[in-house]
Each structure stands twice: as structure tokens, then as C-alpha cells.
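# step 3/5: fold
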Amino acid sequence: MQNTVRGLRPARRRTVAAGCLALVALFAQAGTAQAAGQADPVEPGVPSYLVATTFDRGLMSGARGDYGDQARFADRAGQYGRPLTFEKKTGSGPYDNGYVIRMNRPGNENTLCHYYGRIVLTSDANCRRNPWVVETKGDAFLLKTRWDGEYLYLAASGSIDGDKQLYAKSRYVNDGRQFAEFKAVKAR
């Protein structure tokens, strides 16, 4: 008894081939529908509030730090902070595509950047060129940027009421910080 398709009778071979083609078509159709149904949750060029869904707080600028103004969460739930604008960035490398995120505020230090675990607002010249990438997660999304061979995600302290600083967190480190899931709310 042979266990190959060649050992099957011609009628069975056609049935097996038709079944395989049907499965391939079904999976291809499901993948296309999923990709078509997942629109980008941010609209480039449109000022929007970036609101953490778990905390219902937006982002704002804080005290001046070593590398720029610190990016932080708003003081209370229900506060949306300052609007941000997502600018589409495309490049030639595999990690060059994503967004530059700018906080709508006076001055030229308004680009959201990662510096050694903290998120700051600084000028384009001082910011690493790694764009922010949107990773959808249900009705919300995560924001991540490339750093030394891995992605770092925007995160919050385990105690949002005491520490409102915006952090960068690796998926591989358990440091008590939690990934911040966001929704974009268009500014009026």
C-alpha cells in the first residue's frame, strides 16, 4: 500500500486536488478580507488626540529632560492632552516605513522620539530616524519603534496616578510597565 498521491486512483487524486485548491482559495479569500477590513487607525496629516484606552488619558508635554521635553499622560482620566499629527514616512529599507509623530505645540521641539527608555519631544535633528509603526490590536492599536534590533512599544508605569511619564517597553522585559493601547480621536 502506497501513502502517496501517485498511489491513489485517478478519481481520488482529482478529489484530493480539488479539496486542496478549495482550501487554498478559502484561506486566500479570508486573508484578503481581513487585510481589507483593517483600515489604518490613524489618518496622516489630520490632528488627532492619542488617547490610551485603558486609562482614558491623552498625551501632553512635561518637564524639560536631558534630551527634550518629556512626553507624558494627562493628569486625569477624560483629559485628551494635546493633538498629534501623524506624517507618513516611507523609505527603502525594511524598517523605514511608518510615521513621524509630531505634537501640535509652539516651537520646533515637537517630534515624538525614544531615548533610552523614555519618550521625549525634541527636534528632528536630535531624533533617531526610526519611524513609529502602528500595530492594530482589536479596536485599539499599539505604537512601536525599532531600537537596537528589536521593537520598543509605548508604555505606561504600573501606577499611572503616581507616574505619568510615557515609557518605551520591550516585549522581552518584565519591568512592571504596561503596553499602552491607543485610539485616535480627531481634534476639533
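# step 4/5: annotate
The first helix runs from residue 10 to 37.
# step 5/5: archive (pending)
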